[in-house]
Amino acid sequence: LPTTIPTLLWSPASKALTLSSYPPPTPTPSQHLIELHSTGLTRGELTWPEPNSCPHPIPGRDFAGIIVGSPPTPSPRPFRPGDRVYALTSFYRPGHARTYSVAETTELARMPATLDFHEAAAVPMSALSAWQGLFTKGGLTAEERSGENEGKSVLITGASGPVGLWALQLARWSGVRSVAVVRTGKEGLVSELGADEVVVYEEGGLREWGEGKVGVEVVFDCAGGKLLKEAWTVAKSGGKVVGIAEPPKDHCPTDGVKEDVKGEWFIVDQDGVMLEKITDLIDAGKVKPVVDSVWKLEEWGKAFDKVETGHPLGRVVVQV
Ligand SMILES: NC(=O)c1ccc[n+]([C@@H]2O[C@H](COP(=O)([O-])OP(=O)(O)OC[C@H]3O[C@@H](n4cnc5c(N)ncnc54)[C@H](OP(=O)(O)O)[C@@H]3O)[C@@H](O)[C@H]2O)c1
């Protein structure tokens, strides 16, 4: 292993990123050492508290790469040198905008055989957030065309974003009717990926859309703000508003919400076993990642501009 490797370091104090030469990580006895190929960027990640609480924060919360070293103790889910893997890793450790990194066995999954490294790096954070939003938190059933989901609907705000595009595809796979809320111009992609209905958002439009309707079982909010506030009004009685962008309860309007609607905010869990189910769905051609663009590590500035203000269609990926 080289003594230093190219590493993108974030300074929360000066709010600046610097591409530096920095020592590679030393795996703990439970960690794998991985030669990275690509990492995915996520809007807002530079200001999230957890990743920036570690001593040397590095952006890029998920990756795709090849195992180069494994823990000495055997594991029930072994990964060996040469295996192509991907993962979302703990927010309390440095990320993956560097050429070597580490991951726990519990975080790792086999990479889909049908994807290249850039496509694979676009998956873990977004697909796991969508799976947990719909099934773990939203209470919909995680099974192909499940009878349990018959007649149920989910409304997805921010449906053209990385997480929203996965939520649409997983809704289609599990037999849940989906309503995608998007800005004008993004109707085509969300329809292609499974939206049963598309609402082009204009202020007040969601309240209007919900008027006279029973409402949806689950609102999955991937946008926050005004859109989240209006989305409360389209959940049916006893339904749920599940959010990842901002805590739904902070945006509950004072009028127009049906009885017993619950708000739930969550932070995505790193879960290699769940990610491996997504691997299987990808290889079976049921779902797929959408990559907006791929940038070199030296182009980190442009890559972050694209994520934060460039309205990407799908995930922005950095080749490390
Ligand atoms: N809690 C967690 O564990 C967790 C995990 C992953 C992500 N997140 C957060 O969840 C959010 C969604 O993640 P993401 O990766 O999908 O990122 P994203 O790039 O923020 O995607 C959000 C989508 O929402 C759309 N949108 C925003 N405001 C809108 C509006 N008023 N009308 C219509 N569409 C609107 C955006 O469209 P435009 O591009 O046109 O603006 C974009 O397509 C982000 O804030 C991210 O930081 C949280």
From TrEMBL:
MF terms (GO), sorted A to Z: oxidoreductase activity
Pfam family name, one: ADH_zinc_N_2
SUPFAM superfamilies with a match to the protein in the record: GroES-like (SSF50129), NAD(P)-binding Rossmann-fold domains (SSF51735)
Domain of life: Eukaryota
Record domain Enoyl reductase (ER): where: 13-318
InterPro entries, A to Z: ER, GroES-like_sf, NAD(P)-bd_dom_sf, YIM1/Zinc_Alcohol_DH_Fams
One GO location term (cellular component): mitochondrion
Classification via PANTHER family: ALCOHOL DEHYDROGENASE RELATED, ENOYL REDUCTASE (ER) DOMAIN-CONTAINING PROTEIN
Name of this protein: Zinc-binding oxidoreductase
Natural source organism: Eremomyces bilateralis CBS 781.70
The organism's taxonomic lineage, starting at the top: Eukaryota, Fungi, Dikarya, Ascomycota, Pezizomycotina
